[in-house]
């Protein structure tokens, strides 16, 4: 009888579910993709239902269910923090307690109630319910799917129960904690404080801050290190809590923080100034320095040459790229769903290997299957939907489809690309992507303003054939999950004029910097996704067809969504997004649709107002 374990993350942000069968990852997905509610934190009912369907099992067939967090320990941390700060923080305490006393404190019976309803059974018929620790789940999600038999694991996020930074040693099927840094001293929360202060949304806008950083100067680094962060040579740190409000208030920073940096936080949607750009560059530089110092310490203490990363900070691909170039580790592997969603997978893996002691064999390749772990849709399902809305389409076999799409892309047209299993994690990796020609000077502007409806400064990532990555970028290894940045090679760069070199801030945006300007950031970096025939053969074939047509093995790849919405999941989601935007073509598996041939789209009342201004 196969052993099946369901992992769940929920109730904080990015709820998700993941299913293991005999230790192999069968399915994993975030709830937001089904509910169309970005960062949905509710019980992941639809994600669980999908995982069970993909695995061909009922809830009552499972061996066990594992939650990614220990709520009672987290509640203990909240109470200790409030008591230590009393009477400050009463407003925050009063806001938090009703939710805890009604729901989160009694999470086990709440989960059992939701699961029983989903499984249409009584609670006694449910499989046993277990709870992993938050950072244990992160560490398990990083080490167990990695290619390594022995590796150090570094987890960094806002906060779990108490831990904000933790170090582990993974060997075979064991994962042993080494040491940790506890709340309120948190690199993730420090970065989020600057995200908040520069006018972006905490827990979703951190990557915007990272993208803004190259426009600025590191003008505030010394001030941050002098006033906010006591950083030791070994990478450990403490925050000066006099400047922060997240332990006692409803905001991340306080008046003293405002005074230190010369004014109140930027209001969302307010014009970005050089101050915000310099703040972004400064906190990014500090973050990279902390990560580098921690890696050197871990390497020295544990004597290992491989490092696995998870937790929200591990999604900082600029820091990861610098760690790869300058750090002591020979090999790095990053969990593609490094945030809380990946905790669902980690909880299941921790139960399998740590609690049950089941063996794990490292094969030298990762077990995430390219992160293509979500739903797929058949030709009959796609056709049925398209016919129901009167869509006009062609059905093409693979070879002519690839040639047609390559030709369309070469004409600087924007294509929605939907095929195979949906990605697990925050990145679109060629299954639910919007793609374009990287050689186009106008492509970044067109995609940002007419397709994504987002800020003009945001860079786009390149998808590149894995076998060609080193001919365009200074990278000598795979980067399948878009979690490493590297520079465009010198021979593909374009020299800047003396006038261009004198530009500051956002004025740098429109300078053409390389032969692939749409994916070259203003510092000549790119957030790279290598595309592999083994994990995504159809996307690989498209890149080959584009290379044959143009000589370029690179495409612009951005997530198939508009601002404020999750990445599309179903053919209906994809068609609706296609019709709402100025995309030119849509590919749904082997169905090719031209925007110019579609019937008039009746926009739903108020659809634009549903987009969050994040």
UniProtKB/TrEMBL annotation:
Segments forming domain Carbamoyltransferase C-terminal = 406-595
Q: Which CDD domains match?
A: ASKHA_NBD_TobZ_N
Q: Which family does it belong to?
A: Belongs to the NodU/CmcH family.
Q: Which domain of life is it from?
A: Bacteria
Tell me the keywords, alphabetical order: Transferase
Tell me where in this chain the Carbamoyltransferase domain is found: 5-349
Q: What is this protein called?
A: Carbamoyltransferase
MF terms in GO: transferase activity
